[in-house]
Amino acid sequence: FDPNSNSLADQQSGNEVVRLGSNESRILLMLAERPNEVLTRNELHEFVWREQGFEVDDSSLTQAISTLRKMLKDSTKSPEFVKTVPKRGYQLICTVERLSPLSSDSSSIEVEEPASDNNDASTNEVETIVEPSLATTSDAIVEPEAPVVPEKAPVASAVNPWIPRVILFLALLLPICVLLFTNPAESQFRQIGEYQNVPVMTPVNHPQINNWLPSIEQCIERYVKHHAEDSLPVEVIATGGQNNQLILNYIHDSNHSYENVTLRIFA
Fold first, then answer.
1. What is the pLDDT of residues 36-92, one digit of tens each?
2. Which residues pair with 85 in a beta bridge?
3. In the predicted model, what is the mean pLDDT of residues 131-159?
4. Which of 20, 30, 49, 242 could anchor a disulfide with 25, C-beta 3.0 to 4.6 Å?
5. Phi, psi (degrees; rounded to nearest 5) at 39
C-alpha cells in the first residue's frame, strides 16, 4: 500500500496496481499506522474528512469502508483485513510491515560491552570496611535496653487462590464471546430516483428529501456530461437535507473507485 499514490499492489496477482479513492486511502493509512487497535468512527471522521475541511454524514464512512473492503477483496462475515467491532469502530487485523530501512543498533551494543567488563572487574576488587571499635570505660553509662515486642505472625488468608483466577478468566472470555457470536448490521438503502441511468439511494430510515430531487437531478446531469461513459458512477447516495444542505456521495465501480467523490448542495 502506497499512501502517496493512493494505490495497492496485489502480490497474489503479479503486483497488479489497484487505485484507491482519497477517502479509502486515508482510512487504510490510519488503520495501518495503528494495527490491531480499534479506531472509533469519530476518529476516522476526524482524520479523513474534518481535517480536510469537510463535514459529512455517517453513511459516507460506511460506504467508504465498504468500498475499501471491495478493493481488498475482503469479506464482512470472515474478514482478513478490516474487521467491524460492534458499537466501537473498525480494526485492521492483518500483519503490517513498514517497507523502509531501519537504523542499526550495533553501535549501542558495542558501547555496552566494555561497561560489562568493568563491572566484572569491579566485582573482583576487595573492599575493606573498617568498623569502629566500641571503647568501654569504667565511667560508661549503661542505658536500659528497650523491651522487645514480639512480631505478630501474619494471618493466613482464608480466600481460595483459584477464585481470582476464575474471575479474571471469565472477564477475558466474555468480550471474546461477544465478538464471535454477534454480527454487525450492514446499512440498508432504498432507491428514491434514477437520473441518466444512475440510481439515487438513501438510507432506509432517512427522512424524506423529495423536495431535493430536482437539485439532485441537475447535479447528476452535469456530472455525467463532464465524465466518460466508462467512468460514470454506479450509484449516488444522498443524505442530509436538514439545515438547507444535502450531501451527495458519487460511488464508482472497483475499476474507477479513485473517482469516488463527496459533494455538498446548499439550498
1. 999 998 999 899 988 888 888 888 989 999 998 898 888 888 888 899 998 899 999
2. 89
3. 49
4. 20
5. -100, 130
Q: Read off φ and ψ for residue 233, nearest 5 degrees.
A: -65, 150
Contact by Cβ (8 Å): 6, 23: no
- Domain residue extents for the chain: 1-97+164-186, 188-267
What pTM was computed for the model?
Answer: 0.41
DSSP string of 44-90, one letter each residue? HHHHHTGGGT----HHHHHHHHHHHHHHHT--SSS-SSEEEETTTEE
Q: Which amino acid is at 227?
A: H
Q: Give Dmax over CA atoms of the chain in angstroms.
A: 119
The residue assigned the cell 472497483 is: 254
Average pLDDT over every residue of 95-105: 60
Q: How many residues does the chain have?
A: 267
**Could you tell me which CATH number the domain at 1-97+164-186 has?**
1.10.10.10
Q: Which residues of 169-202 are buried (b: 16+ CB within 10 A; e: fewer)?
A: eeeeeeeeeeeeeeeeeeeebeebbebeebebbb
